[in-house]
Design brief:
It contains 8 helices and 25 strands. By secondary structure, it is α+β, with helices and mostly antiparallel strands. The chain has 3 domains: 214 residues, P-loop containing nucleotide triphosphate hydrolases (Rossmann fold), CATH 3.40.50; 88 residues, Elongation Factor Tu (Ef-tu), domain 3, CATH 2.40.30; 108 residues, Elongation Factor Tu (Ef-tu), domain 3 (Beta Barrel). The strands form 5 sheets. Strands 7, 8, 9, 11, 12, 13, 15 and 16 form an 8-stranded antiparallel beta sheet that branches. Helix 5 runs parallel beside helix 6. The longest helix is centred in the middle third of the chain and has 17 residues.
């Protein structure tokens, strides 16, 4: 029998995202992190050295290790989210390197949506700027539990401690006002390698960990058994073969928590209660499964269950057609009151209507602009939606997997908006849910 101890003894994996303003040296930092941790293959390094020589550079431009698109290399900027896997003796990492340009802030939402830590880079010469505050706000909005402020280019300010202290204090105060609980500041020089992987001899006044040391030791592992189980049904399996004439299983990926044979579960949105008869994983029957395993669940009762239903344990969310959420708009086309959209929540997609945009958030002041009638690209706001069918959404602060959703253009399938259900961003009072029936549209 598999135990919870075996579940939590799995190899530690940290998903983290990097963000920073243009020319703050973010791609160089990521390249330095990969290079100095010996996570770059020989042929990759040779390709970077060759590309650097063609550009007239005497030393390898480590930023080229992450700027993979041709447009990125030609312009010297990061446009798309670049995912990198690397490992040290202490931990495995999945890194999402996100763009710095304002028009690509939406890409940070993509990169940070599954991150457990965000590294926000600032130029020591410029300090905290508008884009820095925007990145901190996105990290707070997405409930990223750990934030690292990497104060880069300390070599260009003579490694001055007062410069670092001032920037760290300003950023920490701002991030704390957003509700970020864990904030660590590290002074670095990505170009010279100071405090990235190896401690810096130029900053003996700094007694904290290097960036890599912090990434290796930050506590992010949680016990899946402490979370309620959430299992969105992706596919119903009914082979109806002579070997398995009565087999009926529900396949999908366990979003959170642990499921065991014999557990009492609730099927949402119907609200029916039943018991798990068996669990199949990788073609083998097992008595326990934990997130994020892909499994097939068999139930003791023959209940009408289809794709998009949620099998859950513990306190379950009340299905509702009135959805209140904080959103980040991702598309150039504005989101307006009255828009008809599709709402995708886990494996369920339903029609929805934008009933109200309660307010837009001013990133600089964190004030709520109540006169908003639309949200433009990269803007964050609070909306009220009315869906054609009930949804079982958790509060995003309780479950990032089943508390998030996407708004989609029904005409062409374009992703418009990323949403986080539940309380208002920044701790503002929640607005009452919209009442009335949704418009029936096709």
């Amino acid at each position: 029998m598999t135990t919870t101890t075996e579940v939590t003894a799995a190899t530690s994996l940290l998903r983290f995202a990097t963000a920073g303003s243009v020319d703050d040296g973010k791609s160089t930092l990521v390249g330095r992190l990969l290079h100095d941790s010996k996570s770059v293959l020989t042929d990759q390094l040779e390709a970077v050295e060759h590309a650097s020589r063609k550009r007239g550079q005497d030393t390898p431009d480590l930023a080229l290790l992450t700027d993979g698109l041709r447009a990125e290399r030609e312009q010297g900027i990061t446009i798309d989210v670049a995912y990198r896997y690397f490992a040290t003796a202490r931990r495995r990492f999945i890194l999402a390197d996100t763009p710095g340009h304002v028009q690509y802030t939406r890409n940070m939402v993509t990169g940070a949506s599954t991150a457990e830590l965000a590294v926000v880079l600032v130029d020591a010469r410029n300090g905290v700027v508008e884009q820095t505050r925007r990145h901190a706000a996105v990290a707070a909005l997405l409930r990223v539990p750990h934030v690292v402020l990497a104060v880069n280019k300390m070599d260009l300010v003579d490694y001055a401690e007062p410069v670092f202290a001032r920037i760290a204090a300003e950023f920490t105060a701002y991030a704390a006002s957003l509700g970020v609980a864990d904030i660590v500041a590290v002074p670095i020089s990505a170009l010279a390698g100071d405090n990235v992987v190896e401690p810096s001899a130029n900053m003996d006044w700094y007694g904290g960990p290097t960036l890599l040391e912090h990434l290796e030791t930050v506590q992010v592992t949680t016990d899946p058994s402490e979370e309620p189980a959430r299992f969105p049904v992706q596919y119903v399996i009914r082979p109806q073969s002579a070997e398995h004439p009565d087999y009926r299983g529900y396949a999908g990926q366990l979003a959170s928590g642990v499921l065991r044979t014999g557990d009492t579960v609730t099927v949402l949105p119907a609200g029916r209660t039943t018991t798990i008869a068996g669990i199949d994983a990788l073609g083998t029957e097992t008595d326990i499964a934990w997130a994020p395993q892909s499994i097939t669940v068999r139930l003791t009762e023959d209940i009408d269950i289809s794709r998009g239903d949620l099998i859950a344990t513990g306190p379950t969310p009340a299905p509702t057609k009135d959805v209140e959420a904080t959103v980040c708009h991702l598309h150039e086309r504005p989101l307006r009151v009255g828009d008809k959209v599709l709402l995708k929540h886990t494996t369920r997609t339903v029609r929805a209507l934008v009933k109200d945009i309660t307010y837009r958030i001013d990133i600089d002041t964190l004030q709520q602009r109540a006169d908003a009638t639309e949200l433009n690209v990269n803007e964050i706001g609070h909306v009220l939606l009315r869906t054609a069918e009930p949804l079982a959404l958790d509060d995003y602060r309780d479950n990032r997997h089943t508390g998030s959703f996407l708004l989609i253009d029904p005409a062409d399938g374009t992703t418009l908006t990323a949403g986080m259900a539940g309380e208002s961003f920044g701790g503002a009072p929640a607005a009452p849910a919209a009442q009335g029936e949704a418009e029936d549209w096709a």
